[in-house]
Amino acid sequence: MAKIISIQRTGSRGVVQFIGPNGADAIGFDAKLSDAEVRRLLPASGAELARLRARAKELNVKGDIDRMQLKTLQKKIAEAEAADAGPGEG
């Protein structure tokens, strides 16, 4: 995971500065997002992507798992886990 340097909010906009796999970077965001939501915007490490891809394969997620980006993997996994939970359980 990326290492966060700072999360700043001014008015309706914010910026998170971080050190990611490709060096220092920053991402703008809506200031209404919580810190946890902002952290989910950051790029994942190779190990995190590998873990998510393995989980997606366990759940038999459809599509080219090895080419999916972080947000797509997270969404597909959440959908598959909700489907596995069945009605009334999730």
Shape: flat
Helix/strand class: alpha+beta
**Largest sheet, if any?**
3 strands, antiparallel
How many individual helices? 3
Mean of residue pLDDT? 85
Poorly predicted regions: none
Q: What's the alpha carbon Rg, rounded to whole Å?
A: 16 Å
Strand content: 25-35%
Helix content: 25-40%
> What topology, given as strand order, has the largest sheet?
1-2-3
Q: Tell me the total number of β-strands.
A: 3
Instruction: Tell me the span between the first and last alpha carbons.
Output: 28 Å
Order of helical and strand elements: EEEHHH
Give a summary of the structure in a few sentences.
With about 90 residues, the protein is of the alpha+beta class.
Question: Secondary structure elements and their pairing?
Answer:
Elements: E1 3-10, E2 13-20, E3 23-30, H1 35-39, H2 46-58, H3 70-85
Antiparallel strand pairs: 1-2, 2-3
Helix pairs in contact: 2-3
Describe this structure in words.
By secondary structure, this protein is an alpha+beta fold. It has three helices and three strands. The chain has helices at 35-39, 46-58, 70-85; strands at 3-10, 13-20, 23-30. It has a three-stranded antiparallel sheet with strand order 1-2-3. β1 and β2 form a beta hairpin. α2 runs parallel beside α3. The longest helix is centred in the last third of the chain and has 16 residues, at 70-85. It starts with a strand and ends in a 5-residue tail after the last helix.
